[in-house]
Amino acid sequence: EPNSTLVMYLKFVEFEETVNSFDKECKSKDKLVSKPQGNTLRDSKTRGIQKDLLSSFDDGDHKVFFELWTENIPSEIKDTDTEAQSLEFYLHIHFTIYPLRRHPGRHDRAEFEERISHFKQYLETRGAALSQTTEFLPYYALPFVPNPTVHPSFKDLFQDSWIPQLKDKLKPFLSVTLKPSNTPRLMNLYKEGGRSTKEAVQQLHLQLVESDRRITSYVRKFNKMQADYHNLIGITAELVDSLEATVSGKMVRQLDCGASSMLRASIAPQKSKEVPMLPSLDYEKLKKDLVEGSDRLKSLLLQALRWRLTRSLPGEQRDTVLQAFISNDLLERYSTKQKTLLHLMRSKNKIVRQYMARLINAFASLAEGRIYLSQIPILLKLLTEALRTEEKDSLARENVLVALQKLSLRRSQQTAMIAANLIGWLVDELQDSDCLSDYTLEYSAALLMNLCLRTKGKRKCAENARHVLKVLTDVLGHENHEIRPYVNGALYSILCIPSVRQEAKEMSVEEILRCYSKEENPDLNRQIEFIIKQLNSADEEGPESDDEEDEDDNDEDLMETDLDTEEVLQPQPREPSGESLLTTEYLGIMTNMSKVKRKSTPLSQPSVDEPLQRPVTPSSHRNFNVCDEALICPSSQTQSVAGCPRSQRWTGHTKESKCISSWAPSPLPVIISDYVPAFTSQPMIPRTPEAAPSQNAGAHRARGPALAPQFSHSEPQQSNRPGSTSSTRGRGPQSGSKRSSALKKIKLA
């Protein structure tokens, strides 16, 4: 067998003399060379496969058929040949409706439902490519039709002639496609071996990415559970205080220390140890090498500088690092050179571009960093340029988008983004939402909402109102529910324009919204009611918002664990990287300048029932303390609490709620009756890709009460930056159509 395989190959490449010499030597050594029988065997095997395929077609055995189809039809034919794609589509239909044809009188419903599920999966994966073809478009509604046998769109499928016609197309296709190749077995073994190795590496890479995604998801869930635990302990402590006061005959405001002190002590932060400052750096040498060094050195330096920000301890250490970057003008805000460090966003090396984008994103995650970035005129041009030129699923593009979303907390940056027509780009991006990762989808929706809060943004949407409304109402049905607050906020905002309201009425937007409100989600239903009320209002366009001086940025730090995930750059053995690279090659003298952090000015909180009305980011929107707000601000007490400074409210960490005790009118029973309904009905507000638990919580304790996005009490909320709940990212495209069943029914009708 080995000898004959070799002879077949030598004959294939026309080494006739070599074959003769080989044959002669084999005979002299009594080594028989069997005659090649490969073609005969292959012919027999091919006929068997073809027979099995046709037999499973007749029997309606979709599992056997598609197993053979996957194994034996070359992928280059399945993926590129239009005839093969068309035939595969109709084969899926054949096997899906087979139970309905087999028992016309009594449909095997369970089997049909199972096959419908397989068909839906196909439509969302391989079949998605044909969704734009008129011939196949009607069949995308098949999974949502209760009884296809009587539906006029599918009557041809149940004609007696339909199956024979399909089989007549299948037979010649199999004969041509499964025709044995003349390629020698030795060459096939070589090709298959290389392909299998490559596929194994790709599979391992996918498993690694998936593991990374799951780890980040678990970290987020842990952070959320820890925050909820702290909130509940704090609420319990307040109730214990009130209970003790009631038992002792005191008013609620006369609180004393008792069991609640032990509860608070259980979540009180440990006394912080003295945090060392990181060594100073030679920034002039750093900037020189970042511009003139090799691409690998540039990438390593960008990575090390980012790690200085993301891995430093929140509080004084991180503030000092950022202040050193800014005071030494790391990003060359004041440079007169034609090409500055920021021009690395145009580097030909994709890793350099990605790591530059990551560093900018890290800057944008901090309030002082956003101020610094907003003073660099060329920055926005470079970022919007990267959005349009980077590959759709690249990490560079993703970090650019997230950085822009964080910068959109600042009014000056909102104005510049609207002028750069970023709204049009975002709407087009969201139109293809099923191909976006959850992370990209959430930040795109949040950025769009922030820009729509501005008068100029609303008017920009009004220029193409039908398209914008179509995209927003469509994406509202996406399976990622984290985007709903941002979509609702954008809808509510643009519907204050009379021309947009008129367009919405012509498009029956109210009917689409009411279809969503049938879902069992009271929080979504309440927000939709606000949007419908806005849609049906007769108000004229609101006052111009663009002359307001308020920057809106609430000074919150938004550092996320996602900034350091999926590192594509790994140091070689003995190659310095990170802090080691900085401290061995770039030590400086007294370049670390400490600075007192600006005290944040929180904005008023919105009602969670309403669409968002102020810029937010997904991280800050998620970190909004729902439990705290539910306890302190029941609807019946809104006016009383509105005047209570946020800094005096209980934060779930250390302080007692002096504000509560100052206005609580009666003992515990009243408190319970007022607060519990509000507490249980408040919706959970999306969390951003949360910062590492030990970091953000520690930072907030060190600097005072935890910050949360603040909003007006009177109108719907709107968020500013997407976080990543599902976000770490389902980085790859989302599979197929993810619209809610309610919207599908509307479209079908």
From TrEMBL:
Residues 538-556 have a biased composition (Acidic residues). Residues 536-556, 563-582, 593-620, 684-749 are annotated as: Disordered. Keywords: Cell projection, Cilium biogenesis/degradation, Cytoplasm, Cytoskeleton. InterPro entries: ARM-like, ARM-type_fold, ARMC9, ARMC9_ARM_dom, ARMC9_CTLH-like_dom, ARMC9_LisH. GO terms for cellular component: centriole; ciliary basal body; ciliary tip. The keyword Metal-binding does not apply. Residues 49-179 form the ARMC9 CTLH-like domain. It is found in: Cytoplasm, Cytoskeleton, Cilium basal body; Cytoplasm, Cytoskeleton, Microtubule organizing center, Centrosome, Centriole. SUPFAM superfamilies: ARM repeat. Transmembrane segments: none annotated. Residues 417-536 form the LisH domain. Its main location: cytoplasm. Residues 711-740 have a biased composition (Polar residues). GO terms for biological process: cilium assembly. This is LisH domain-containing protein ARMC9. It comes from Cyclopterus lumpus (Lumpsucker). The lineage of its organism: Eukaryota, Metazoa, Chordata, Craniata, Vertebrata.
